[in-house]
């Protein structure tokens, strides 16, 4: 059963969540917002622009310990899964859709047991966008300004407080026993529908053309000049990979203690835009130009993941555009490829 909560009831709800979970919420940081561990219930903000890193990075962590080992005693080698009960609070729909993609990709055999265990211990409380959170976003083109699954509960501002849709048994437990919520009634549901209708009008397309044809057009334009044009500007810094909520490539690094015996293997985020990503032991590099690497990133999102999972791997959050010091925009690339249809 859905619920409602008044604006002034939210802080008390967060305080009670903090009694039982690590609560990770959007907080202001200089001129940006980041998802961070809350120390005060009042620290969380609900209206925020795209965060620097997406919330999924609290599930798919950098420097995650994966394995403890003893070089002289194989019996002591054991997998490490560091699980904390946590809540990701006020997650935008694009980021919920990204977590849905990560859930699917990382559950494929061989499954990423660390990700899956942390994911199971993570409650997701969404916050529905009724207005775009930034200008250069393509979440609407991707249909990711809205999430129909992947959260336990989701809040929507209906003018008199928040409508709270409850999707899972865990969500029901969390809001069902909390005194700040009351059962939603008919008028609340009408208010939700009206707010959503109004909100829908505020979103617009960034890409001209049918997104359903993008994958096909990309394949037809594999050798297009756009890759060289963008490649000439690309700094191969990998920032676009690191900020992307659906980039999941990683490397492993072993650190050995001062006894030169016991050590730990860690997951370190990696990125296909880094020059060494495709370099192999013989010294060859299978993607030795920035142009080839940019093309790969776009094809990974729009062709390869689509072929494998039936949906694009880009949720249109715009973070890669925001983070690129060379001014390379995935929207420009998509629009260029879409124009090819008319060429
Ligand atoms: S490719 Fe860019 S716009 Fe798409 S999900 Fe990744 S960071 Fe967001
Ligand atoms: S952020 Fe921009 S400059 Fe850096 S690797 Fe990505 S496309 Fe290249």
Which residue ranges are poorly predicted, with pLDDT under 50 across at least 5 consecutive positions?
Answer: none
Quaternary state, please? single chain
- Our count of helices gives 11
Mean of all residue-level pLDDT scores:
95
The shape is globular
Rg from alpha-carbon coordinates:
22 Å
User: Which ligands are bound?
Assistant: iron/sulfur cluster
Question: Major sheet, described briefly?
Answer: 8 strands, mixed
In whole angstroms, the N-to-C terminal distance is 52 Å
Q: DSSP strand (E) fraction?
A: 15-25%
Count of the separate structural domains: 2
> Helix share of residues?
25-40%
In short:
This protein is of the alpha+beta class. It has helices at 10-20, 93-107, 113-120, 169-176, 186-202, 214-220, 226-233, 239-243, 290-309, 319-323, 330-339; strands spanning 3-5, 22-29, 32-37, 64-70, 78-79, 86-91, 122-127, 153-157, 162-166, 181-183, 250-256, 262-269.
Task: Walk me through this protein's architecture.
The chain is an alpha+beta fold and about 350 residues long. The protein folds into 2 domains: about 5-200, no CATH class; about 210-340, no CATH class. About 35% of the residues lie in helices and about 20% in strands. The protein has 11 helices and 12 strands. It has helices at about 10-20, 95-105, 115-120, 170-175, 185-200, 215-220, 225-235, 240-245, 290-310, 320-325, 330-340, and strands spanning about 5, 20-30, 30-35, 65-70, 80, 85-90, 120-125, 155, 160-165, 180-185, 250-255, 260-270. The site of one iron/sulfur cluster has 13 residues, from helix 8.
